[in-house]
Amino acid sequence: MISLIPLFPIQPRFEEYLFRIVQNACENAIRHAQASQITVSGRLLADQIELCVEDNGIGFDNAEFPDFARLLAQRHFGLVSMVERAAIIGAELHIHSHGDSGTRVHLTWTDHRQNGKEYLLF
Fold first, then answer.
1. Which residues, 6 or more positions from 62, have their beta carbon under 8 angstroms from its beta carbon?
2. Is domain 17-113 in CATH 3.30.565.10, yes or no?
3. What is the pTM of this model?
4. How far apart are CA 57 and CA 69, in angstroms?
5. 11: which of 2, 40, 47, 84 is 20 to 30 A away, CA to CA?
6. How far is it, in rounded angstroms, from Cα 3 to Cα 24?
């Protein structure tokens, strides 16, 4: 595992949350989307991290996202936890899905500490 702590000196849970978001996206592609291909890519800059998980599986109706009550009622806990973890670390999370064209999960985290803002993780 590659550690981001020397580059981004924040709470250790930061790395875990990034990992769990990617893990959930991959698990959803395998369990629910019946994807035959999953691509995980990323970009690490001095003040930004971008992660992307794309699959070629069965997508879902984007209209039901991010209606949390509906997602929870339909037991889509993976999607809800991805959004919650991204919010905790101050990242933007976009999920694009359309029927048979697969799903794309894109996360962008920008280091705003230069502006006196720090993210506290529990």
1. 95, 96, 97, 98
2. yes
3. 0.79
4. 25
5. 40
6. 20
